């Protein structure tokens, strides 16, 4: 399984991105379940690939969330005056 490029992930639509995140989480859960029930045969690289892909997907999702927030909103935190 080849690692995907962040550029390719950024081209996905919001709906597709959400589906990909759910699919990656489900696959990771299934692998963990197989490992716990000793049904997994030396596929540790799949854990690494899935975790990497999930991190990429969630990073792009977070970038989009931050892009929707208007610039300057939340940058300066008001401190109470004494």
UniProtKB/TrEMBL annotation:
This is Large ribosomal subunit protein uL29. Signal peptide: none annotated. Coiled coil: none annotated. Belongs to the universal ribosomal protein uL29 family. InterPro entries: Ribosomal_protein_uL29 (IPR050063), Ribosomal_uL29 (IPR001854), Ribosomal_uL29_sf (IPR036049). GO terms for molecular function: structural constituent of ribosome. The keyword Ribonucleoprotein applies. Keywords: Ribonucleoprotein, Ribosomal protein. One of its GO terms (biological process) is translation. Pfam families: Ribosomal_L29 (PF00831). One of its GO terms (cellular component) is cytosolic large ribosomal subunit. The keyword DNA-binding does not apply. HAMAP family: Ribosomal_uL29.
């Amino acid at each position: 399984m080849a690692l995907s490029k962040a550029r390719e992930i950024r081209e996905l639509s919001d709906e597709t991105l959400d589906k990909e995140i759910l699919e990656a989480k489900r696959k990771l859960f299934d692998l963990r379940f197989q490992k716990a029930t000793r049904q997994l045969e030396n596929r540790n690289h799949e854990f690494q690939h899935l975790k990497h892909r999930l991190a990429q997907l969630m990073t792009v999702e977070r970038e989009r969330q931050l892009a929707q927030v208007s610039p300057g909103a939340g940058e300066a935190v008001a401190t109470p005056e004494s």
